[in-house]
Amino acid sequence: MVLSPLALFLALGAAATALAEPLRFVDCGSVDGSIQEVNVSPCPTQPCLLHKGTSYSINVTFASKIESQGSKARVYGEMLQVDIPFPIPEPDGCKSGIQCPIHKGHSYSYLNKLPVKSEYPSIKLIVKWELVDDQGKMLFCWKIPVQITS
Hints:
By secondary structure, the protein is mainly β. It has 1 helix and 9 strands, in the order αβββββββββ.
C-alpha cells in the first residue's frame, strides 16, 4: 500500500499533535502560582512510558501570584507515598525558560529536561515536580503517573 503525500502529511500531523497534548496532572500544592498547562514530550498517553536512556522535554505554563527574584526546581519519584529525590540537569528556574525576576500576575513557560538513566529500574511510579520561589514557597507542584521501561 502506498500512501499519498496528503495522507502521509495528515498522519504525521496527527502524530505530532498527539505528542503535544497537555497532560492530565494532579496539582499537589501550587500556592504562589497557578498551573495552566503541563506538557511532557513525547508522552502521547498516560501513564507516560519513559524509556531508559532517553530524555523528555518538560514544559509548564503557569501564572505567578507573587514577586520573586528566583526559583528552584525539585523533582521526585514517589513510591509508596515516599518522595525519592530525582536529579535534573538544571534546577535553576531562571535558566529554564523563566525570565527573572518573577512578577506577580505574569505567565511563564518553564522548560526543562527529564533524563531517564539506563540504570534506573523498570517500575511504575509518580513523578512529582515542584518549583519554589526565593522564599521556598511553592510556585507550582504537579504529579503524573509514569512507567519506566527498557
